[in-house]
Amino acid sequence: EAQVTQNPRYLITVTGKKLTVTCSQNMNHEYMSWYRQDPGLGLRQIYYSMNVEVTDKGDVPEGYKVSRKEKRNFPLILESPSPNQTSLYFCASRRRRIGFMNTEAFFGQGTRLTVV
Amino acid sequence: EDQVTQSPEALRLQEGESSSLNCSYTVSGLRGLFWYRQDPGKGPEFLFTLYSAGEEKEKERLKATLTKKESFLHITAPKPEDSATYLCAVPDNDYKLSFGAGTTVTVRA
């Protein structure tokens, strides 16, 4: 089954304790992204990756790191989490554009992070 | 400036009461418009892609249409299981989708 898998689904942590949220896709997609979703603010892109070893900042990258060492995996790292990073996080993957047509993104089930 | 605006924010329907959701966009040179369904606490689930004005896509009770400035998601004879938040998105570039804030649909039996 084609899917994007995130872990963990729920996480409660304390301020400053480093954490990693994993993301893996089995569709051989080139593009992967991380989004956060907050009430009233919708989905905002944190970081994206165009391919292995190629990443760039999205709209809200402060306080986050990513890496893409393998095509299927795209972990999100919070080196020193703060309460304002409490949010619902989604990983997504897409095939590269076909001609002029952008392709749909497939999303993971989400990680609800609470930083106290 | 917002690229994608959805209306209404919320829609309460009786079972069987058809209605439409609107998604207007300002990006030029549209390279796809995407509709997603999202259940509370879950990831967005892909519904449709539309590429050109006049295009229509259907899936069960849902039909999406596209004009040069907006898209509509029509829900025909909705059932309670159609209750969800519906999101539309357009590509800013090859790597980023801009999402609207969504329309939360509640269908009462």
Identify the most extensive interface between protein chains. Answer: A-B, 28 and 23 residues
Instruction: Label the overall shape of chain A.
Output: globular
Mean pLDDT of chain B: 93
Low-confidence stretches of chain A: none
Q: Give the % helix of chain B.
A: under 10%
By secondary-structure content and strand pairing, the structural class of chain B works out as mainly beta
Which range does the strand content of chain A fall in? over 45%
Helical stretch count of chain B?
Answer: 0
Mean pLDDT of chain A comes to: 95
Largest sheet of chain A: 7 strands, mixed
Question: What percentage of the residues of chain B does DSSP assign to strands (E)?
Answer: over 45%
Please count the beta strands of chain B (DSSP E, at least 2 residues each).
Answer: 11
Overall 3D shape of chain B = globular
Assembly state of the chains shown: heterodimer
Instruction: Please trace the helix and strand order of chain B, writing H or E for each element.
Output: EEEEEEEEEEE
**Between the first and last Cα atoms of chain B, what is the distance in angstroms?**
39 Å
One letter per element, helices H and strands E, the order of chain A comes to EEEEEEEEEEE
What is the gyration radius of chain B calculated from CA atoms? 13 Å
Strand pairing plus helix content of chain A: what structural class? mainly beta
Number of strands of chain A: 11
Q: N- to C-terminal separation of chain A?
A: 36 Å
